[in-house]
Amino acid sequence: MNAVLEWDNLYFTFPGAAAPALRGATLRLERGQRVALLGRNGAGKSTLLLQANGILRPSSGEVRVGGTPLGFSRRGLIAARRQVGLVFQNPDDQLFSASVAQDISFGPLNLGLSVGETRQRVATAAALCEIADLLDRPTHALSGGQKTRVALAGVLAMEPQVILADEATAGLDPWMRQQVFAIFNRLVAQGTTVLLATHDLDVAHHWADLVAVMDAGRVIVAAPPKQVFGDPTLRDLLGPSSPWAAGEVDTYAPR
Amino acid sequence: MHLIDRHAYSNRLRRVDPAQKGGLAVLTILLCLLLDRPTVGLLAVAWMLALTTLWAQVPPLAFGRALLAEGLFLLLSVVGVALSVSLGQPAATAAAWRIGPLWFSTSSEALALALRLLSRALGCAAALNFLILTTPLTDLIELLRRLRVPETLIELMTIIYRAIFVLLESLDRMRTAQDARLGYRDARRAMRSAALLGSQLFLDAYRRSKRLQVALESRGLDGPLRVIALDYTSDRRVWWIGAALVASLMLAGVAL
Q1: Contact present, B212 and A94 (Cβ < 8 Å)
Q2: SS3 state of residue B187
Q3: How close are the terminal C-alpha atoms of chain B, in Å?
Q4: Structure pTM?
Q5: What is the full per-residue pLDDT of chain B (256 aa) written as tens digits?
Q6: I want to staple A142 with a disulfide (CB 3.0 to 4.6 A). Which of A25, A146, B128, B226 is the partner?
Q7: Cβ-based neighbour number of residue B4 at 10 Å
């Protein structure tokens, strides 16, 4: 099978940082996959995602989007950003316009689509994210969950092959989280690959087909959830949580 | 801010083309300035109040509060026109008062001038109130875009308007956190906390701007911030209202 997105042995150090953030990170995503990216804070999850569309440039290694190496020319970057959509944890960091419709139209227009096509894309993305009734509301009057869905629609309107969501469901209530996962599942059914970087091990356990675990700038495991959550060493790395909890409910009890 | 914003997004003229609403407001301002009569200014206030409350269905209180704030401010500034201050007793005045070594006096010309200035400025302020209470800033920015205002200004307005609300939320959270740790228990501490808050808010805005830049680049930012135009309806009645408005103001300016 052809990979839609591959990170191949990436090394990267933030300017001025003492230690590298990525040290040989490798991961391969296939079409229509549900992926959970786990790892403790500082393991390099966000850094890995920002490499996928050329926001950060690796010092060595290669990113391949749809089999083609990511180029850092203007054209190369536009091609990568067309295929790889990034959704951020805080929608307020992504929504720049006070008009919901105008915010969603930003990405498609940047792809060079006509105004007519863009309107079509806005309508489709809004329907998919169930925010059609919010299109002419001001951004600042929306709730957190609504903003998350608007931010998601702004990325979906570009119709990328891969969605990389960096803790996009953190801080949402379980009902709203379910709404967001319903959107993810619809995308996956259409053949889009969805990767969610998360600390929610339950999500990784129940939702994902592939669970990737990062530690110290490397992807140390990428396997089906059953295998990952059957490995007690990973439990020590990631911390106690319900996928491992059978018989260990007193994890937090005083000793 | 929030009050004006709420009415702007929910009034009955929300869907009407901002060019039409802007046109009415600009016409009123021009007539107030050109005709320059107290009756014209006051009539303009009445017109704008009527349009805002009866046509757009914005509560009169919202319009009144905005106009009151502006009116008080204007009143303070025309006091200087109406009153003269001198050390000796002024000659030929309508009224004069002595307070200590100073003489305060006024004349009928000075009063008339003050009234003219006040009513003219109030008329203009009312016209702008009508516009901002019926037209959200997104629509005004859209109007400026159509009027070919330079791209950079439009982008700045778009991002600043959004940032106001994002930063207000930040400010609120930080203030609550400080308050919870007794940061405002007395005046000295309040000063110190407010100063800290100011500098933190600046840093917060700076970090947010970097994250916004990354998010926009991820969505293919490549040159100007382009977005689709918004849809509006054109209301034919605006032409009739505009004509009646101009006719009545002209009549007031010439006849009265």
Answers
A1: yes
A2: helix
A3: 38
A4: 0.83
A5: 678 888 998 899 988 999 999 999 999 999 999 998 899 999 999 999 999 999 999 999 999 999 999 999 999 999 988 888 888 777 767 788 888 888 888 888 888 999 999 999 999 999 999 999 999 998 999 999 999 999 999 999 999 999 999 999 999 999 999 999 998 999 999 999 999 999 999 999 999 999 999 999 999 988 888 889 888 888 888 899 999 999 999 888 887 6
A6: A146
A7: 17
Beta-carbon separation of A81 and B161 below 8 A: no
Distance from CA of B223 to the nearest CA of A (A): 9
The angle that helices B187-218 and B151-180 make with each other, rounded to 10 degrees, is: 140
For the record, the structure tokens of B205 come out as 């805005």
Domains and CATH numbers, chain A: 3-89+162-252 (3.40.50.300)
* C-alpha dihedral sign at B108, B111, B115, B121: positive
Which residues in B lie closer than 8 A to residue A139 (C-beta atoms)? 162, 165
Q: Is B9 near chain A, with CB under 8 Å? A: yes
Which one-letter amino acid corresponds to residue B179?
A: D
Q: Residue type at A84?
A: V
Contact list in A for residue B213 (CB cut-off 8 A) is: none
Buried b (16+ CB within 10 A) or exposed e, B173-202: ebbeebeeeebeeeeeeeeebeeebeeebe
Q: How far is A98 from chain B (nearest CA, A)?
A: 5
Query: Alpha-carbon distance A115 to B201, whole Å?
Result: 37
Of A194, A149, A201, the C-alpha closest to A172 is: A149
Strands of chain A (E only): list them.
3-12, 22-30, 34-39, 60-65, 68-69, 84-87, 162-166, 193-197, 210-215, 218-223
Is-contact B90 B96, C-beta < 8 A?
yes
**Treating both helix axes as pointing N-terminal to C-terminal, what angle do B18-35 and B108-134 enclose, rounded to 10 degrees?**
180
Q: A109: distance to nearest CA of chain B, Å?
A: 7
- Secondary structure E strands in B87-135: 95-99, 102-106
Contacts of A103 in chain B (CB under 8 A): 227
User: Rounded CA gap, B188 and A121, in Å?
Assistant: 55
Q: Residue B242, SS3?
A: helix
Q: Which among A94, A98, A154 is the nearest to B138, CB-wise?
A: A98
B9 to chain A: which residues are within 8 Å by CB? Answer: 137-138, 141
- Sign of the C-alpha dihedral computed for residues A170, B166, A93 and B140 taken in this order: positive
